[in-house]
Amino acid sequence: MARLADYFVLVGYELDKRGSRDGQGQILQRFPEKDWEDNPFPQGIELFCQPSGWQLFTERNPPSFFVAVLTDISSERHYCACFTFWEAVESAQSQRHSRNGEEEEEESSSLIQPAQLFAPKSLVLVSRLDHTEVFRNSLGLIYTIYVDGLSASLENVIGNLLTCTIPITGGAQRTISLGAGDRQVIQTPINDSLPVSSCSVAVLFRQLGITNVLCLFCAALTEHKILFLSSSYQRLTDACRALLALMFPLKYSFTYVPILPAQLLEVLSTPTPFIIGVSSIFHSETQELLDVVIADLDGGTVTIPECIHISLLPEPLLHQTREALSMILDPELEIADLAFPPSTVSAPSLKMQDKEIRAVFLRLFAQLLQGYRWCLHIIRIHPEPVIRFHKAAFLGQRGLVEDDFLTKVLEGMAFAGFVTERGAPYRAIDLFDELVAHEVKRMRAEEGNKQKILRHIKELAEQLYKNENPYPAVTMHKVQKPTEGCYLRLHQRPFPRLDEGTVQWIIDQATAKLQTAPPAVKAEKKCMVPSGPPIAAIMERNGSALANSARRLEVVRNCISYVFENKMLEAKKLLPAVLRAMKGRAARHCLTQELNLHVQQNRAVLDHQQFDFIVRVMNCCLQDCTAMDEHGIAAALLPLVTAFCRKLSPGITQFAYSCVQEHVVWTNIQFWEAMFYCDVQNHIRALYLESNEENHVDEEGKEGPQEEKSALEIASEQRRLWPTMSREKQQELIQKEESTVFSQAIHYANRMSYLLLPLDTSKNRLLRSSGLGDVESVSNSFVTNSIAGSMAESYDTESGFEDAESSDVANYVVRFINRFVDKVCTESGVTNEHLKGLHIMIPDIVQMHIETLDAVHRESKRLPPIQKPKLLRPSLLVGEECVMEGLRVYLMPDGREEAAGGNIGGPPLLPAEGAIFLTTYRIVFKGTPTDPLVGEQVVVRSFPIASLTKEKKINVQAQADQFIQKEKKINVPAQVDQFIQEVLQLRSCTFQLLRIAFDEEVASESAEVFRKHLHKLRYPQHVRGTFAFTVGQSPKQAMQPKAKEKNPSLSSQQVTDMFQGLAVGVISLGHLGHSSTTLSKNLMKNAKKTIGRPYVTRKKYTPPTWEQRSSQHFQEDDEDEISVSEEIDRSTLTPSTIIKPSDKMTMSHLVERACCRDYQRMGLGTLSNSLTRSKNEPFRISTVNRMYAVCRSYPGLLIVPQSIQDNTIQRISRCYRQNRFPVICWRNSRTKAVLLRSGGLHGKGVVGLFKSQNAPTAGQSQTDSTSLEQEKYLQAVINSMPHYADASGRNTLSGFTSAHMSSAGKWGSIRASGRMSNYVLNMEIGSRLAGKDLLSAQHNGAPSEASFLRQHRASLYIIGDKSQLKGVKPDPLQHWEVVPIEVFDVRQVKASFKKLMKACVPGSPSTDPSLAYLRTLEESEWLSQIHKILQISVLVVELLDTGSSVLVSLEDGWDITTQVVSLVQLLSDPYYRTMEGFRLLVEKEWLSFGHRFSHRGAQTLAGQSSGFAPVFLQFLDCVHQIHLQFPMEFEFTQYYLKFLSYHYVSNRFRTFLLDSDYERIELGLLYEEKGERKSQQVYKSIWDYIDRLNKKTPVFFNYMYAPEDGEVLRPYSNISNLKVWDYYTQEVLSEGPSYDWELVQGQPEHVEEVDRQDSSAPQTKRKIIWPCYDNRSRVEPDAISKLLEELHNLEAELGQVPERWKDTWDKVKASQRTEARQEASRMASSSLLMSSSLLPHRRSLGVYLQESSVGSTLNLSLDSDTSSTSTPSSGKQGGPKSTSNLYSQFQMSESENRSYEGTLYKKGAFMKPWKPRWFVLDKTKHQLRYYDNRMDTECKGVIDLAEVESITPGTPTMGAPKTVEEKAFFDLKTTKRVYNFCAQDVQLAQQWIDRIQSCLSDA
What we know:
Layout: E1 2-3, E2 7-13, E3 25-31, H1 45-49, E4 64-71, E5 77-88, H2 91-98, H3 104-109, E6 118-127, H4 132-148, H5 154-163, E7 165-166, E8 173-176, E9 184-187, H6 200-208, H7 210-221, E10 225-230, H8 233-247, E11 255-257, E12 274-279, E13 292-296, E14 301-303, H9 317-329, H10 332-335, H11 350-368, E15 376-380, E16 386-389, H12 391-398, H13 404-411, H14 413-422, E17 426-427, H15 431-446, H16 450-468, H17 500-516, E18 527-528, H18 535-539, H19 550-564, H20 568-581, H21 585-597, E19 604-606, H22 608-623, H23 633-641, E20 644-649, E21 652-655, H24 669-688, H25 711-721, H26 727-756, H27 782-790, H28 809-827, H29 832-862, E22 882-891, E23 912-919, E24 922-929, E25 939-944, E26 948-954, H30 956-966, H31 974-979, E27 983-988, E28 992-998, H32 1004-1018, H33 1027-1030, H34 1035-1039, H35 1076-1091, H36 1093-1098, H37 1103-1109, H38 1116-1126, H39 1130-1133, H40 1141-1152, H41 1154-1162, E29 1179-1182, E30 1198-1201, H42 1206-1213, E31 1223-1227, E32 1234-1238, H43 1246-1250, H44 1261-1279, H45 1293-1302, E33 1306-1307, H46 1318-1330, H47 1345-1349, ...
Helix pairs in contact: 4-5, 5-17, 6-7, 6-8, 6-11, 9-11, 11-15, 11-16, 19-20, 19-21, 21-23, 24-26, 26-28, 26-29, 27-28, 28-29, 45-46, 46-50, 48-49, 50-51, 50-54, 51-52, 51-54, 54-55, 62-63
């Protein structure tokens, strides 16, 4: 029983203080006057009666009522029911006081009657019970008696009120009367643990809505500050009460003030969480609260400040709760869309709705906390139960470790109270206990079924409702109410003063009566609290527990049993699979169980191999555990690490714990606590179990076996018996329990010292900086971690940081253990003496352990080192030999994320463990990934030594830190960290980076030796030291450079040529008796003789001066050289009529060179004697340089104008840098314009010609004569051009642009506008390149007037460097024009390339956004250089195509000149786009014309300082860009270009060694291999190698090759059209670079065999392809390669001699043509469709050929903007007949210029027969072309219509087709010959004649 009310208080306005600013209240009377003993009078009631402050009012307000809540110091809540009414203040006083200035206006205005003021007065009941309605009624009754003057005595009523007692709970119904003829019924709740909410919860939801209330609910549970605002006090109280009711079964334990008075507003800035209500008049004061969630009840809003993040419920609970709430609060929602909604929806009463909402939250808590009882640890039963909750295990088993909300709730105060209150095993239970124990299964079954959920909610709501209202309200209340409006009566007497004596007398009497009455004993129904199903049973639906298949667990079991049966080989085989399985939780649990079985009597002695194995598995198992150890893995392993051991020597044993300390879990104090409590619980349980069960104790897991009694059950039983025991028995049990805890504490002190003291305690390993308090990092620094981690819980907060430096490991460990012991012992009630004893013991324990560890450490050092993975040997090329055996290293990840499992996912292939090998040719790393998931893969990374560009050491610590950061995602085995000594980073210009960390077993000397060898091999003394020369010799020789060679210039491989059709008398070396070297010596001798003395003495070998020259400043001795060569005897230089034999031989060789073959192909002159030379040839081949006397870096034979004598050439050559005078290198077959190349000019020279006339002439007449000769030379070039004399409009600049409109070339890709005007584009290119000199374009791109006015277009354009051509004025009389352009120099190329390498292959991953890939790429400016080269080249192509010749004269004439000249030829001449032609182009322009490969590639020691400049690579990149835009124009593939890019720096072949033909001859390279060519193994020429490879496999061949005749390509060069070459970014880790073909072939089959061993696995065709690991072109070849390969295999199987792939391909194409022809004759329409389906401008189709299971599918897509015509629909019915058939659409000659076409018979020339040919009449090109057949792409001949004189009817001649009428014949007479034609019939013939005639007349 309890008092209904403790105190009755009368509070009034304190009139004496009226003058001050704020009014104050004062207690006028209180009853009883002395405090109750059990309940002191609460302070500050007067503040709460008027929460917004005491004030006087000018009118009477109606009485108000609300309940405030006060919390006292012992956190008891007092409910203060305040009933307030207003009383008039005497007027006399009011007048006197009003002078003080408060109410003056009022006084003056009310003349009739003195103004009255009203002061509030409150009746207050203070109670510990919350019966709002009863209080309202009782206080109302007292007011009514007073206001209506009823007869009852107020003292009596108040006395009765204060003495009324009611039962607290149990559902009794009690009727009370206060003695004024009233009657009230009080219903008490059945169970007082359930909160009473009447309808406050429902009201709260109506005010705020579902989402807002859920938000508040989560905020309250996660301990945020919550503030309610409302203008109604009662609503504030209700809202606060509702929020607490929702939190049940958790109780709110922070500040709770539903109504906060104005004077206490500063409470709002308290740092602790709170729930407070404030009147909304103080809204402005709450604005500056930054961390408070504000709920405005009147406005229905919840405001969450920005700085607060409220964790919401975990999904799916959040969604389910929302759904359930909307079903209850808005039942109409379900039927809102129904066509026939039910007529009425029965809405429950507000009270019922309130209970339903609470039922939803009750269910929510039952689901959140399901299974919580299985995670309780009971650590003491007597005298009071002490219970701890294992939070980590709960979260782990629920799979909610990551969940923010639940974690915060479990850490909160409310949950701590919940555990204390509800953890007790023996107590009364309520609705929640039953729900969480018995209904969880039902809730899971009903998930998703709305009807069932609703039914369950309604059931629960019924129970909650019944709890509050146990009886149907039969008896009615009867309480007098005051009459309406009585508060407005004018003459109301004040509330009377009550007589204290009377009230006190009533109270005393009642108290006396109570004392004599017998005490009412409340029968508590205590029982054992049910636990409900364990979490494991609940969680299965998540599947997370079942993620591991049984097969994996089987593997784990087998592996462990193999280990213990000592079948180590079997175990090793299974190891990778086991390590992979360890990622799953089930497998880790399985492992701990298996290991447990092998421990006998707490000890298992293993041999070394077993020990290593078990330790490795344990480490792998632990490395995925977090510090919380939520799955209990570390807990299960803890007893095992102290059980497994090995004998090191007699008396010295090493336990497993010394090898598994590297895990963060051991440093987490919460983990140790949970472990400790778990063990204590097991021991306490054992204490109470009967003795016969004691042998089970050791095997118990955390949950305790289910079939026996759990610890909680035992505890519950013990608590039940406790009151019945004797004192002695009780004391005995208490003591036993205490000593059990104490012994466990000692045990744990030992265990902790085992796992915290490192094996080598001398190393102060704890102070390592890495991983300070960082849970993720796998580090050894457990103490730093633990200090950071345990600060929060430890009561002594002295941190260990101050003396961290000086102190040693032992002190740290002692301090850590002390902190732990303090905490657990105080919690579990260990006596103080025992605790002191422990503190004394701990340092000794640690010290002893350190001593044993020292011995173990000493012995373990003597053990043989652990077997590390076997070093895999790389496969080597023929002739490649190892210089250094493999050094064990780790290949560390660099900035490329793919291999480290970064952005694309996939397992991390790096870091990998293996060895680095240094061979004569490459640096190779070969090894396996350290990550066990990819342990079986082999990782190979290599690059040629010659391509090494930079080698640097990296700070080990930096590397380790970066390693740790990077590996947060993937746990790196801790050993990697220890083994690293030094890290080397090697960067190669083949876009590879090796970042290697030497293993600790590699002595630092070995690492040094490695670096020295590397350096020696990278920069040999002489080019003879490079791999291309030393291949096949033993490496020792290679290391010692020959002393006599002084030539420091660089090496490259140039191989000679076995070519067809050679000119003048070739004497092959075979006929000579000499070996090649003697030959070259003879040759040199002759050369020296011929050249003459002074030259030789002046210059022995001049390369050093080249070095000086390359640096752009020309010293005086350049001039000097020139003057010396002046004195040379003239006769020696003119070609002598009698060539000596050796010279003849030289000649014949020169003729064989690539240039010469190309000159002949273009008809640029023959090498016949000067007398017989045909005069009409404009050019001749000059032998002036055959001894390399004129220009050392030019080839021996050069093309010069016919009219120029050789001695003139020598003089001219002096004007140019490096003597590289202009020579012709290509001629346009159509316009006969020529392309010339030369070095830049010296200061004097041509520029002098252009200087303004009045400038002083430069020096002596000799200079003038040279200039004149030079001028003559240029003029001779111009005269050679057929159009020179023709000054028609076509040669003017305006013509220049208009000529493009009709030119036959094709531009890059079609812009959106369709055919973009080439005209504007060209103007733009011209003007942009030339500044204003060549063309000045207006803004709109049209040529300006000036350029139109210029009549003549120059016949020769000289493209020169702006800086050289300063001050040049155009001379109208000259026929040439200078185009000054700005180009970048080699230095810029070098810098750009460095940046490009860093962008494509970054050294380390960057978090800095400014270092992002695209940005660094842009900053490298590589693409803008490519853009520039392409732009210049396209300009030159334009000029040549319109008939002007061009001389490219930039820098020294061997870098950018070569790039431009080669690209121009490639774009203009389709021949160079074949494989043969491209080879010729490179040999001619790059090798013969002296691009300095050795110097630019820094191939020898001499070039080391200058560094690597990838000029040739830049050219190949440009070709790649063109190839991308015109994929059908090239016979070779992109792979061919990559192959060249790789090998031009690799030094594997001699082709790209040395700087010029001269040097190659000097070394005997050029002509050597003619005779002794038969050693098949070692290919010295890259071209031979490519030829051989091309015969074997179509890897270089482009299946889409379908060239067009005379096609000139004009690629787009804008940067937006350029792509980054994938050569720079892709890599194949499975086999290294794929460019050394022998090394990578033959591997795939072997891989498949390995797969097949696992025969039990189902065989599947499925492959997983990793972009950075597999060679994609081989793993999934394109369809055609695949078909060719299958064909080859079939032929082999059938025993036929396999055909070469090329023959097969040609056959297929031929057959496909015939097929297509038949098709075409069948259906002409389709052929039209086919011919038109391709856009004229460009046929760059992407053909993606992909292997699929069905066969091969070809997806063809055209790269064009117009979709309607772009799909090549062939229109055939029967589907394609063969794969090649699909290509028929692209093989047709282009449809753009076909005015009329058809078949005609044509008689061959001379005696040849008539043959049918496909003729095409082309109006645009003004020609008649003919082809073999309709499908043929190669034009067989062209008749130029300009040459046709007449068309006449013809007569049939011999061999003409028989069936044709005579009139179908006609003849076409041209200037050269007569063509005889015959059509199929007369009409056709007539049509042809008409068409041709019309063409002629048009022209």
